[in-house]
Amino acid sequence: MSAPAQTMLSRVLIILFLFVMTMATGPGVLLVNKADQWWGVPVVYLWGILWYFVMVIIALISYFRLWKCSDSEHSGDQK
Asked: Residues 54, 20: contact at Cβ < 8 Å?
């Protein structure tokens, strides 16, 4: 992946992660903070689990597409 594409992907993922953090723990919880249940589980729990999985997907995309090991970091490991 080229450097400009990585920079753009990084920015998009950062903005998306900040949005997810807001929706998962902040004012987003107020949208579903009711006594309703889906499949016997309170909606607010399902809300948190949904956003947790979105965070995991963002972390996996970052891991496989952006986070790279440089050779200089591992050169000191081998003696």
From this structure: yes
26, 75 contact by CB (below 8 A):
no
CA 48 to chain centre: 13
User: 3-13 burial string, b = 16+ CB within 10 Å, else e?
Assistant: eeeeeeeeeeb
Stated length of the chain: 79
Rounded CA-CA distance 39/23 in Å is 22
pLDDT digits (tens, 9 = 90+) for 36-76: 788 888 888 888 888 999 999 999 988 888 887 765 555 55
- Provide the β-strand partners of residue 22: none
Q: Is the whole-model pTM more than 0.90?
A: no
